[in-house]
Records
---
Amino acid sequence: MSMRPAAADAERLLTFEVESSVYALPIAEVHEVAEAQRVRCVPTMPRDRVGIMNWHGDALPVVSSALLFESESEAEEPVDTPGEAAEPPPRAATLDGPQVLVVSGRDDEPAQLALPIDRVIGLVDGVKRRRGAGRLVVERRSVDGRVVSVLDPRRLVARASEVIARVA
């Protein structure tokens, strides 16, 4: 399902779930929600951490969500945390999940990463983008009684590159 937004919707956030944690990305940086069965292993890379998928003829890296989110242990002070819940326990690295989000670092860039997710929750209104200095999570907010961690798409793509280099 193609996710490129109209100009009026560009500031909305797509919320999704990974291991019972809720995250959000600006919809402008989400190209598509794709089925995960297209993920293939990469020789010399651990299958449960890094894979590759064919996305409309382009090879996209698929990186375990657990690995992307682990190295930023969010032990740092979050940007905005009204009613913040306790951190979930560490997750096992895996590429398994029914879907992947095909994302880019900016809305004017081609797709750069496939992010395994458990499910899409929906769209919520966004706010002015805040950039935490090098932080993956730039904001935490409460949506429907759950804490949503809003991710910086540029940092997410950069983190994926770091993870791939580390496990290679």
---
Amino acid sequence: MRAASDAAKIERLMQGIGRLVRGPGRVYLVGGASAVTLGWRLATVDADLKLDPEPGGVFEAIAKLKDELDVNVELAAPDDFIPPVPGWRERSPFIARHGPVDFFHYDFYAQALAKIERGHATDLLDVRAMAERDLVGMEALARRFEEIAPHVARYPAIDPDAFRAKVERFIGDLDDACAR
């Protein structure tokens, strides 16, 4: 078991990837990696990443950095669990460039929908933190859900009606909390 990762460790991971890869590419931070770099969580167990396009030599870089930094790296993104949200690349905020690699936060709408679908308490707190920081708006979140709803059937682990109910309940609960 590796140690938890804070914002400084995630930054060293990004710098290390940029230093060690052999070519250009894009790396998207997901989940806890976004949460700690933006400050609503102090640490995360995993640094979840999506590579698109994959920088040459990135797997060798990650293998080296996992040991060097004592960081757990997972290749996981919302589109592994829910349908890709149209426009996710364009909505992914730029973080930094290290060497030939551009780093982004994976689209917060896609992250929010994946977290709502999974439904863990920490996930829902993350989505609330995204809303509090104006990284997602509830009307736009509902629109993003409608964009992917016709494609949910391609993900057999998801019950489409239950997913819709989770999204509607989250939006309603947040709207109620804001009205108080």
